[in-house]
Amino acid sequence: MSKQPVSFFWFRRDLRLEDNVGLFQALQSKYPVIPLFIFDDAILDSLPNNDPRVGFIHENLSKINAQLLEQGSSILIKKGKTFEVWEALLKEFDVKEVFFNKDYEPYAIQRDTAICELLEKNNTIAYSFKDQVIFEEKEITKADGLPYTVYTPFKNKWLEKYKTLAPVPEYDCAASFSNFYKSIFIFPTLEQIGFQESTIKVKDHNLKFITNYQEIRDFPALDQTSYLSPHLRFGTVSIRKLVNWAFHKNDVFLSELIWREFFMQILFSFPKVVTQNFKAAYDGIQWRNNEEDFKRWCNGTTGYPMVDAGMRQLNETGYMHNRVRMVVASFLCKHLLIQWQWGEAYFAEKLLDYEMSANVGNWQWAAGTGCDAAPYFRVFNPEIQQKKFDEKGMYVRKWIKEFQLGYGKPMVDHAMARDRAIATYKAGILK
């Protein structure tokens, strides 16, 4: 008995049915579309079984499934090694086409290349689309075609190009929902995937503060941030809708979205930055890499209230305010002389909004080793940062319960650490 020919749409970091480029294109297929998500063992095996990001993915897949059930359809959930999952799917179904949105991280590029080769061997056509950015890969380059490595000219070129398109077209997927494959697949529980609910949750995003974003964004006690970053990371919001909206609302907020694309372009063009300094001249720095100092930083017991409050917020909630991220990153690299890769890995483990390109980019910025980075002799004073951005101590009191009872002695003297950092960088930077 012959199988019904079908198309697949493969969800990855685009967990929504609205304004989804690859999904829109899939629904134009002449074959019914099976929506698919694969819980990839290559990613999951390194995570704790209560990782809140897996719970967030599962929660949003459940929302998608509920919407699909209204159409007499559902999402197919698989777990395993991605290549093996696709091998099995190609045997189970008569797969004519596969649609997906691009991912620009090194592992994703390697994975997708292997899957596309497998599909081609099975006479299945693969289509990939730009969805998580406005401009991808080599769309924003210098006149000579080389990638920008400085943010401001990248931003100027980005804005110049965006203005020729504004607003960027959005995609009405709902008009073609009738082309979903009519079958009800079993939707697994989180426990059946091998995970448990976490007490840490992703917050709903909130854009009501954006009109005066530039006035409030540096003050962590106000708690007036958008909480958008995890939603952008996992694609529960459309970057096109967001940018089209932000373009008319707030230039500073828009510039943060452009920073996101700048770091994505850097990662795509210079994949070595995942583990290596962008500036090879910094490879000679002699880091202290003291494990006990690192533990105190991780646990938020450095004796510097702004640093400790930030790390405790991260450990308890999976979030950290952006201004505070700069302070804690600078402290680790400059005050403690611990190389940025240690901090980057810890953030990757804890942050709900972990995005490789931004995490690596911002850590190298703080360490001075990245493109368009803070100069090595710029060493944030955590006490001055606290006085400027948390003058009344509201933020540090929220996260350091013992703060009102007096607080411990700083683990390292700022003046000494600053002089030591500058001397170490000077001695280590290769001429």
Quantity of strands, as a count: 5
Query: What is the CATH top level name of the largest domain?
Result: Mainly Alpha
Total domain count: 3
According to CATH, what is the topology of the largest domain? Answer: DNA Cyclobutane Dipyrimidine Photolyase, subunit A, domain 3
Biggest sheet strand line-up: 3-2-1-4-5
User: Rough shape?
Assistant: globular
What is the oligomer described by this structure?
single chain
Helical residues, percent: 40-55%
Distance N terminus to C terminus?
71 Å
**Second CATH tier, the architecture of the largest domain:** Orthogonal Bundle
Could you describe the 3D structure shown?
With 431 residues, this protein is an alpha/beta fold. It has 3 domains: 1-131, 3-Layer(aba) Sandwich (Rossmann fold), CATH 3.40.50; 133-168 and 211-269, Serine Threonine Protein Phosphatase 5, Tetratricopeptide repeat; 274-428, DNA Cyclobutane Dipyrimidine Photolyase, subunit A, domain 3 (Orthogonal Bundle). Helices cover 46% and strands 8% of the residues. The protein is built from 19 helices and 5 strands. It has helices at residues 21-26, 41-44, 52-69, 82-92, 106-121, 151-163, 190-193, 213-216, 229-234, 239-249, 251-269, 291-299, 305-317, 322-335, 340-350, 356-367, 382-389, 394-399, 414-428, and strands at residues 5-11, 33-40, 76-80, 94-101, 125-129. Strands 3-2-1-4-5 form a 5-stranded parallel β-sheet. Helix 5 (106-121) links the parallel strand 4 (94-101) and strand 5 (125-129). Helix 10 packs across helix 11 (251-269). The N and C termini lie far apart (71 Å). The mean pLDDT is 95. It comes from Flavobacterium pygoscelis. Residues 5-134 form the Photolyase/cryptochrome alpha/beta domain. The record marks 287, 340, 363 as: Electron transfer via tryptophanyl radical. FAD binds at residues 213, 225-229, 253, 256-263. One of its GO terms (biological process) is response to stress.
